[in-house]
Amino acid sequence: MNYSDPIIDGYYDYCLSIKKLKQTSVNDIRCSVNKLQQYLSANEIYEYIWNLELSIFVQFFSGLREKGERGTGISKQVSHLRSFVDYCWRAEYCNKNPLIGFSIKDNSPQYQPRFLTIDEVSNLISSTDRKTRLGRKERLIVLILYGLGLRTSELCGIKIKDISIDEQDLFVKGKFDIERRIPIPDGVWVELPAYLHEADLKRGLLFRTEHKKRKLSVADVGVVVKKYSAFAKLESGVTPKSLRHTFASHLIGEGIDISVISMLMGHKSPKETGSYLHAYEKDVRAAAFEFDKILEDEL
User: Fold this and answer.
1) Given a cut of 60, is residue 111 above it in pLDDT?
2) Rounded CA separation 155/216 (Å)
């Protein structure tokens, strides 16, 4: 059920028009507000959200925890409601924001990304096909996933115009519309122009399906990785995301600064990267070309 109120609706409009949030983000905020309003109604609490005491918020969040919601999800709802009450405070609908400084501790198990060892990556790359045109395309897909650490959707969306021949890097507009340029390692670069020439590609998408020449889907890329993982006799469960995690994990061993890795991966902040990375020091371009140590045997 959606609860309509001029002040709440005005906040949603503010998020869209002033804060320039995406509609999906506003929908998430709306969901958090609706959950709280449902709780208030069920408990016969007839008070505006912006006039609630901290104890009511605590009871609401505790109830979410008891229902099995993870700390990360509850923390996001805390953030949504804190921002809304702050909006109300600045608009002088209330005289305080009880959620300032309030946070939820996440005691849920930390996610441990799947990544490959250097030997496993070498076996995977060695198992790709260099003899056929299709094989060389699929090989390049694997090389880019590992060598540039792209999300699968980012790889599917690569356009010829995104590739800088002069700078030897790739322009990527990824999640949250975060833009970044990623240096392309020599081990990937040496095969990229050959693929462009063979496929006679001058514009449009870098990769298309063999049938109907449509845009690759996430599932299509998953099939490629699964295929060569089987050829390499790797344990099941290797996915394109595993190669992205491997990209980051191997940079750890090369001593790359966490802020650099965060930028290369298109994360919103180094804190996001910190779920499985440690801090080291080196620069961006050196980080990308460290992969040549692994790829050089394949040249």
Assistant:
1) no
2) 9
Distance of CA 244 to the CA centre of its chain: 10
- The CA distance from 190 to 264, in Å, is 20
Using CA of residue 14, residue 15, residue 18, residue 22, what is the dihedral sign? negative
Place of tokens 């609401």: 60
Model pLDDT, residue 271: 62
What is the sign of the dihedral through the CA atoms of 33, 35, 36 and 41? positive
Burial class (CB in 10 A: 0-12, 13-18, 19+), 124: buried
Domains along the chain with CATH numbers: 6-90 (1.10.150), 118-298 (1.10.443.10)
In the chain, how long is the greatest CA-to-CA distance? Answer: 72
Evaluated on CA atoms 142, 261, 264, 241, the torsion sign reads positive
* Whether pLDDT at 278 is above 70: no
Statement: residue 27 has pLDDT above 80? yes
For residue 114, give both structure tokens: 């799947």
